[in-house]
Amino acid sequence: MSRSDDSLIARYLEGDAEAFEDLYRRYASRLLGFVLSLGADRDAAEDLAQRTWLRALEALDAYKPRGRFRPWLFQTAYRLWVDEKRSGWERRRTPVDSEEELEQAASSDRAASGAEGRPPADPREQASACEERELVEAALKRLPEEMSRTVLLRIDGDLAYREIAELMGCPLGTVLWRMSEAQRRLARELASVRKG
Question: From 1.10.1740.10, 1.50.40.10, 1.20.1730.10, 1.10.10.10, which CATH number describes the 1-95 domain?
Answer without folding.
Answer: 1.10.1740.10
